[in-house]
Amino acid sequence: MRAVRVMGVDPGLTRCGLSVVEGGQGRTVTALDVDVVRTPAGEPLHRRLLTISDAVDHWLDTHRPDVLAIERVFANSNANTAMGTAQAGGVIALAAARRDIDVHFHTPSEVKAAVTGNGRADKAQVTAMVTRILALQQKPTPADAADALALAICHCWRAPMIARMAAAEALAAEARKKYQARLKAARA
Predict the structure, then answer these.
(1) Is 122 assigned a ligand-binding role in the annotation?
(2) For the segment 17-36, what is each residue's pLDDT rounded down to a tens digit?
(3) CATH architecture of the region 4-159
């Protein structure tokens, strides 16, 4: 089995976490790069999205990931924050689509559960586990960097199950098609 290169993205307008890891045999994951793209809150939205887009384009062209893992936006009490996060995630997903790179979205609780074993873990727990899993010399900061790495780790570990589920669904769809064809033929 060849190693898979995953780009993890914690989308946000003010801080957008970007990471690239390589997943190998079993649960082996190696960090290749991590950074946070920052945009000033006072800047117009379209300029902030352009800054994020330019950074993501550079990362995609430099690191050439096999897949992107992006945090799925969830509705929170601040609609403006959720909207900005969704817009940043959309710009990033579009950049991947233009390069024919698969994109998978993971919820925060999925990521926390995969990395810490607890879907309600706090940021400190996620950062500590990311540091341990990747055998980093120091904790990634800010939290957006650790979250981007956690997303990539989560996808590395969940990808085999996602692939098996897709294959099972395809087999079930094919079996359903054949069964319906036999029923149609029997009625005729």
Answers:
(1) no
(2) 999 999 988 889 999 999 99
(3) 2-Layer Sandwich (3.30)
